[in-house]
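Data card: per-record layout.
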Amino acid sequence: MVADRGNGPDTLTEVLLGLRLDGVEYGRCLMHSPWAVAFPATRTARFHFVARGGCWLRTPMTDWVQLKPGDAVLLPHGSFHVLASSPEVILPLIYGHLSKRHWPARTALG
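The structure for this 110-residue chain is written out next.
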């Protein structure tokens, strides 16, 4: 458990303690603008929690959604998605390639 200077668990730990998770992979990132990360589709759920700052989320089925500190997102079917510091950031091809089929034509990522 991650403690917050002796005052009990931090917010993320409190959220995760209430879930029954098997085969969990945990990562904690401190990002500096501009940034964008594409997450490939998986068969498992994906969970993101914004502790500080903020970011934007995009899936093939939704437009950009702003996430603020304290926001949590669960993608139950592990669909392809992008987290970015802003919708205008150019996405580097880190996890495979992106094609026009991932995004509607009206977006900058399309």
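Known properties of this structure: The domain at 27-102 is CATH 2.60.120.10 (Jelly Rolls). The radius of gyration is 15 Å.

See the next section for split statistics.
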